[in-house]
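Record 1 of the preview.
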Amino acid sequence: MRGAGAIHVALSSPFSSMAPLPWASLTNRPDPIGAILGADGSLKQGGRTLTDAWPDLAGRLTPRGHLLAVRVYFEDTDFSGVVYHANFLKFMERARSDMLRLLGVDHAALDDGAYGERLAFAVARIDIAFRKPARIDDVVEIETAVVESAGVRLVLEQTVRRGGESLVDAKVTVVMVNAAGRPRKMPEALRDKLVSRFRSSSGLSASSERTSES
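->
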């Protein structure tokens, strides 16, 4: 089914898994290309991290948020030759995850209880509009910006563009949950990592960041 027009979707899929990470036991074990997983969870090869070797692999932070480039492959398209609408959700999830990575938010640390208990992000709502198609070999950019932080919620705006052309616009609400799936107010140290960098450019203020849980 091709995406056309605006739809509203409420989702409850986890932003990251609460299960123990399957590669946790692979620390310092060589992989087929000679890389190892360091104690901090970073892939290392020849004395340097793979992030050093591929500095733009996770995109880059911008004054407003984060930017990730994604190339469209045949597997991303449907029978009509355009990107299947659900794959745009995958592109946007990658962008959210890579923004967290570059901001120093470690999923493994969240799951290990670094902030007092096991925590994860879960998508609570997506409002999305599919405006124009993307096709095989296109390079699209996913821009992610934090626009609201209140209680258990974090609201992000995401736009998929090809050049200067907007293809998909979405507003994504994520919530912090514990291992039992119950909402938890975001720890201040974690909130500061996520929003302090963008406070001046996104309009976020200290008062809007610390409203009551909702």
